[in-house]
Amino acid sequence: MPILLAKRLRWGVFAAWGILALPAGAQAQAQVAKPANAKTDSPPTLRVPHVSRPPKLEDFLNNTPREAEAVISEFRQRDPGDGVPASEPTTAYLSYDDKNFYVVFVCRDVPGKVRGRMAKREDISSDDEVAVFLDTFHDRRHAFVFAVNPLGIQLDGLFTEGQGDDFSFDTLWHSEGRITPEGYVVWMEIPFKSLRFSDSSAQSWGIGLDRIIIRTNEVDFWPYVTRRVQGITQQFATLEGLENISPGRNDQVIPYGLFARARILDQTIPAFRETTDERGGVDAKFVFHDSMALDVTLNPDFSQVESDEPQVTIDQRFAVFFPEKRPFFLENAGYFQTPINLFFSRTIADPQFGVRLTGKAGKWAVGSLLMDDRAEGKSLPMTDPNQGDRAGIAVVRVQREFSSQSYIGLMVTSRDFAASSNRVFALDTRIKLAPNWVLTGQAVRSYTHNLDGSEMADPAYFADLSFTGRHFTYDGNYIDISPDFRTDLGFVPRVDIRETNQFAGYFWRPEHSRVVAFGPVVSTLVNWNRQGQLQDWIASAGVQLILTGQTELQVSRGEAFELFEGFGFRKHSTAAQFDTKWLKWLDLSARYSQGTRENFFPATPLLPFLAGQQSASLSFTIRPTPRFRYDQTYLYTRLGTIAGSTPLGTNAGTSIFNNHILRSKVNYQFTKELSLRAIFDYNAVLANSDLIDLNTAFSSTLANTLVAPKHFTADFLLTYLLNPGTAVYVGYTDNYENLNLGTDPITGQPAIFATRSPNVSTGRQFFIKASYLFRF
User: Fold this and answer.
1) What are the residues facing 371 on neighbouring strands?
2) Which residues pair with 667 in a beta bridge?
3) Suppose 659 and one of 166, 291, 445, 637 were both cysteines; which one would form an S-S bond, judging by CB atoms 3.0 to 4.6 Å apart?
């Protein structure tokens, strides 16, 4: 879900097969500017005064006299009117004392139009909001981001040019917000201890302030930040006046405890068994030289409190990506991000200890990780000599910045298990060629030694050239991955490719209209293997219409070719998508596509064949009150036979499979800290076993059966989140499947049988987890 910087900066992806790209929406509003072709204003300098009495929210509600503050009121639009004065008045007041930096926003707005809900921390993507960006090293590349909605709900993150936003960053700071008859007021207190910066007695930072008005698609900035220049941090103002401040020690220790009781169906025995897990551990952070952080974890808690979002995983040729959710890996993940994904932390499943060092020293940025993983050794049978062994994991990345928003980086990853090893060495760079042009490249080589003694070594390459402007957008890239390239710690779902992608879009932006922008987009893909054999080609075109109220309509058509197991398949797809936040209480998204695609995993003795595909998704969020939220998601995928490609004895229109995924989610926010959430998931596959291989296509647990899997899960969670380190979670999960434990009539032994409906509980768990932040 796009949030904060995603709402300000993102070009998204719209896919008909997962391959047809359209930009997912520039932010805009009815009024459009007529500035010059390029920005000529140089960033201003802002001097912030030291105060002896910190400002309070009530001061601005009651007009209480205060000490002198820096006052900013000349906000200008970035979207939709690039450079036009903000449609609603905004005034920001800035000051600092020995320990904290203060920002207060007074936002005027039409009575009753402000969007602000009482939500859990960081859940403000559909609300109005204000934010401050702090480039504390003034390198014009990185910035801390602190955002608040009108009721004081926080969102924090890190922004890096060329990588975008990283909202996994969490730190301790304070905020309040109040909706008033004239708009709303937001107060922020950011401790210097929660930031990293140099040890100079007089600081010089970069700073940007912004405001988002959801209903009009408006993004306002101070200082003026234009789309006519790619990147935002180099356009920030220079912040001066901060003297004799320091982040201090900022040492943190977060112990945690977990108690869990579970009853699961163990299909290897098979039998139901009960387990009790009583576990404790500790995470610690130590900051030194004001800018480097050492994180240590012992017996880390890598259980996921939040479940993965539903995705279609049926009949997928390549692995499906599920994002990381575990806190230790989320923090500072951007330090290990490169164009080719060489470090995907979900490959580390069961660690016992870990150490991570991240930070900046001048123009150098460093990230390193040492960790073990017990998962592979535990999965081996007792007769295997490597049973119980653990993998040793090391990741190091060093980056040197130069020129304007350019860098060169080196990354090394290593994973060792028993006598096997995988080493990956990579060099990457980002070069800003001109205000709107950026070149990114990477060269990688892997060295693999397998348990059987065999060895592999192969390279991979990536290059990307992009242009971002107010009207025209272009991106072209080339990726070359050799057949024996392996990255055991990364996520590279396909090798043996030489692939080139091109994307271009042009948008008109009418003045004084509810139409924010509209225009065509086109994209192409061509892929050969390393022997020069054509594997895929795709050509697609579409039209996008953007209206106020965060409303977008996209229509596209694509033609494609794909080579699979020696067979060439000619495919097509037509798709449409609609998204809106027009109503204050409703977010809605709908998508439909139809066309043709392969049945990748046909039942024996059939060969892969072309089939007709339909897919649809519908999701909406209803907020009848500021504290209550209901989310509904429905995903539907169907594959069926078509004339001209029908297996012998099968009529056209015969269903191969239907997949229904339904998620209902309810959340009630009692206070900023306390919430209750319930999730109900249903996943059913209705499949024709004469046409598709259930076990291969569905990764089914129902081996040698003719029934496809069905799951129903109920998940309840009570959360008390005082701050990112202090929290209590009480949860209960119950999973039902179309399985049952019985007796084999021939052997008389326990056996698992498939049923028609998911009415047997195969896994239930109750857990309590608590953690507490000690900060020194």
Assistant:
1) 354, 393
2) 629, 677
3) 637
Element housing 6 (H / E)? helix 5-9
Q: In this structure, what token pair is assigned to residue 352? A: 């016992």
DSSP string over 115-160: -----STT--TTS-EEEEEEETT--SSEEEEEEE-TT--EEEEEEE
Query: In the structure encoding, which two tokens stand for residue 729, read together?
Result: 């979670």
Question: Going along 232-350, which residue ranges are E strands?
Answer: 237-240, 252-266, 271-288, 292-298
Task: Give the model confidence (pLDDT) of 715-725 as tens digits.
Answer: 999 999 998 88
| pLDDT score at 706 | 47
Backbone torsions φ then ψ of 27, nearest 5 degrees? -85, 140
Compute CA distances 175 → 33, 155, 673, whole Å. Answer: 33, 10, 13
Structure tokens at 537: 């080609």
Place of tokens 């009848």: 624
Helix (H) / strand (E) containing 666:
strand 655-669
Neighbouring CB atoms inside 10 A of 228's CB total: 17
Q: How many helices (H) and strands (E) does the chain have?
A: 5, 41
285 alpha carbon, distance to own chain's centre: 24
Q: 412-444 pLDDT, tens per residue?
A: 999 999 999 999 999 999 999 988 999 999 999
* Residues 178, 185 contacting (CB under 8 angstroms): yes
- The rounded distance, in Å, linking the Cα atoms of 411 and 429 is 11
Write out the H or E segment, with its range, that includes residue 675. Answer: strand 674-687
Alpha-carbon span 496 to 483, nearest angstrom: 4
> What are 677-703's pLDDT values in tens digits?
999 999 988 888 889 887 766 654 444
- Cβ–Cβ < 8 Å for 443, 459: yes
Give the total residue count for the chain. Answer: 776
- How many Å apart are CA 136 and CA 158, to the nearest integer? 11
Among the residue ranges 167-181, 523-537, 704-718, the one predicted with the least confidence is 704-718
- For residue 193, give the nearest of 322, 318, 98 by alpha carbon: 98
Q: Which amino acid is at 684?
A: A
Q: How far apart are CA 521 and CA 526, in angstroms?
A: 17
DSSP characters for 705-723?
Answer: -S---EEEEEEEEEEEEEE
pLDDT at 707 > cutoff 90? no
- Residue 45 bridge partners (DSSP): 238
**274-297 mean pLDDT:** 86
